[in-house]
Amino acid sequence: MPPQAAPAILPPETVPAIRAAATIILTRSGPKGPEVLMGMRGAAAVFMPSKYVFPGGAVDPGDADVALARPLPPGCA
């Protein structure tokens, strides 16, 4: 395995702010084994164009206001 490059040390004012985000991984049993839901990013995307990704994205302040459709089953809270 090739050696990894040392991480760059950037001045604090140039480091981008951390953005709250969420990802979900959905799976199900399919006829040939497990299936996983993924999407493909657009070719014009700045970050990771034309790559397969799990659904998700930035967390908006209003996301916390959405009520659950039903209670979570035990073990999921």
TrEMBL record:
<dbReference type="InterPro" id="IPR015797">
    <property type="entry name" value="NUDIX_hydrolase-like_dom_sf"/>
</dbReference>
<dbReference type="GO" id="GO:0016787">
    <property type="term" value="F:hydrolase activity"/>
</dbReference>
<keyword id="KW-0378">Hydrolase</keyword>
<protein>
    <submittedName>
        <fullName>NUDIX hydrolase</fullName>
    </submittedName>
</protein>
